[in-house]
Design a protein that fits this description.
Largest sheet: 4 strands, antiparallel
Number of strands: 15
Number of domains: 2
Strand order of the largest sheet: 8-9-11-12
Distance between the termini: 63 Å
Strand content: 15-25%
Number of helices: 2
Radius of gyration: 23 Å
Length: 216
């Protein structure tokens, strides 16, 4: 069982390379081809990684139908070529973001990477459903490590351990407003006690209608 088409080609040199042997032309099922950015400090802009794997699948198609050009992660570079000024795209944080939790999900972003625990779990810090690591102005990811995932059923136990001597407070019985598309909700330990806060954050460069009114 072979893939019917050749794997996607790349430009070579700094723009990217791959290890497929053009003479052998191996397109058999499960064969893997590694695409990489050979220049130190360069990577793929959509995920920040310096290499990706292309696999021949059971449907006789490759898992990747296109591969991005490698871009500079360290600094903006201007190059003169035939008297044209070319701006090389920059990845603000040169190092990789924290790895995803076991069994969880990960979405890379230039300014902020998002994480999600496996189904039935939440982050021990209280963030649910997403936890974020941001690329800071000093070009490092903060926080540098992903928070631990715990079962949702363990959440109340942790809250009781953190506040063992506090008297029982009034609590909200109804559910808080749900998040809209791509929003973040920071609900520490899902605390329902009176006075606790939930922070809703809009996606990058977006705001709510209320924010727009305040801006006026």
């Amino acid at each position: 069982m072979n893939c019917t088409e050749d794997p996607v080609d790349v430009l070579g040199e700094a723009k990217g390379e791959y290890d497929w042997d053009i003479e052998l032309r191996n397109k058999s099922y499960t064969v893997e081809i590694k695409y990489s950015c050979p220049v130190k400090g360069w990577g793929y802009p959509s995920n920040g990684m310096s290499e990706v794997i292309n696999v021949c699948q059971a449907d006789k198609k490759w898992s990747l139908i296109e591969v991005e050009e490698c871009t500079c992660k360290l600094a903006v570079t201007f190059m003169f070529k035939k008297f044209d000024l070319v701006l090389v795209t920059v990845l603000p944080c040169p190092k990789q973001p924290p790895p995803k939790p076991d069994g969880g999900w990960f979405w890379y972003g230039l300014e902020k990477s998002r994480y999600k625990c496996p189904n039935g779990f939440m982050f021990a810090t209280g963030q649910y459903p997403y936890w974020n690591s941001s690329c800071t102005p000093s070009k490092i990811w903060d926080p540098p490590e992903v928070a631990k995932c715990i079962r949702k059923s363990d959440n109340q136990k942790i809250l009781e351990q953190l506040t063992p001597s506090m008297p029982t407070a009034r609590q909200c019985l109804n559910e808080p407003p749900d998040i809209f598309i791509d929003m973040d909700r920071d609900w520490p330990l899902s605390n329902r006690d009176m006075g606790s806060e939930i922070i809703y954050t809009c996606p990058y460069r977006m705001g709510t209608f209320i924010h727009k009114l305040k801006g006026k």
